[in-house]
């Protein structure tokens, strides 16, 4: 079914973007925020698992990947570098913002998949738990200062735009 294929493709691409973000933030954190290295490494390993899960499904079903895959990897990397250089709070504001957009998207997918594809529903459901944890960490550490609001909205709308575009590519 076309819609199911699109869901796996978009999620696969999104996880590639997430790997880019955390890899870049980790690079900066190793120099500037050594205390964040461990938690960022942990998150990166989650995103690698998520990516592998969707990769497996794509391969086993013969579904092509998103044409924007490389762009999301680079875009994610750029976003990771910029937010990390803006400061440790910006890292977490970025995480909170992305996961808020992602979870909104996953909720919609889950209600659709529940009726249409048990295997992918289970995969998305298992990933959702990790993303909720990431969102929590982001919320707790991001800080509520008004200074960060533009970052929050900018990242959230970029994420929504990337999801929308991935649906077309
Ligand atoms: Fe993920
Ligand atoms: Fe995540």
From TrEMBL:
<dbReference type="InterPro" id="IPR009078">
    <property type="entry name" value="Ferritin-like_SF"/>
</dbReference>
<dbReference type="InterPro" id="IPR011566">
    <property type="entry name" value="Ubq_synth_Coq7"/>
</dbReference>
<keyword id="KW-0472">Membrane</keyword>
<protein>
    <submittedName>
        <fullName>Demethoxyubiquinone hydroxylase family protein</fullName>
    </submittedName>
</protein>
<keyword id="KW-0812">Transmembrane</keyword>
<keyword id="KW-0831">Ubiquinone biosynthesis</keyword>
<feature type="transmembrane region" description="Helical">
    <location>
        <begin position="66"/>
        <end position="87"/>
    </location>
</feature>
<keyword id="KW-0503">Monooxygenase</keyword>
<keyword id="KW-1133">Transmembrane helix</keyword>
<dbReference type="GO" id="GO:0008682">
    <property type="term" value="F:3-demethoxyubiquinol 3-hydroxylase activity"/>
</dbReference>
<dbReference type="GO" id="GO:0006744">
    <property type="term" value="P:ubiquinone biosynthetic process"/>
</dbReference>
<keyword id="KW-0830">Ubiquinone</keyword>
<comment type="pathway">
    <text>Cofactor biosynthesis; ubiquinone biosynthesis.</text>
</comment>
<keyword id="KW-0408">Iron</keyword>
<keyword id="KW-0560">Oxidoreductase</keyword>
<dbReference type="GO" id="GO:0046872">
    <property type="term" value="F:metal ion binding"/>
</dbReference>
<keyword id="KW-0479">Metal-binding</keyword>
<dbReference type="Pfam" id="PF03232">
    <property type="entry name" value="COQ7"/>
</dbReference>
């Amino acid at each position: 079914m076309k819609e199911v294929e699109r869901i796996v493709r978009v999620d696969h691409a999104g996880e590639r973007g997430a790997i880019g973000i955390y890899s870049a933030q980790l690079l900066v954190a190793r120099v500037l925020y050594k205390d964040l290295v461990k938690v960022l490494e942990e998150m990166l390993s989650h995103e690698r698992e998520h990516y592998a899960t969707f990769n497996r499904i794509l391969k086993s079903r013969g579904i092509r990947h998103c044409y924007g895959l490389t762009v999301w990897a680079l875009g994610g990397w750029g976003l990771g570098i910029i937010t990390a250089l803006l400061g440790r709070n910006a890292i977490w504001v970025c995480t909170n913002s992305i996961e808020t957009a992602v979870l909104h998207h996953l909720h919609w997918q889950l209600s659709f998949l529940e009726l249409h594809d048990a295997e992918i529903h289970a995969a998305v459901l298992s990933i959702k738990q990790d993303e909720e944890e990431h969102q929590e960490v982001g919320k707790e550490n991001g800080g509520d200062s008004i200074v960060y609001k533009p970052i929050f909205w900018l990242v959230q709308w970029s994420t929504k735009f990337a999801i929308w575009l991935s649906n077309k590519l």
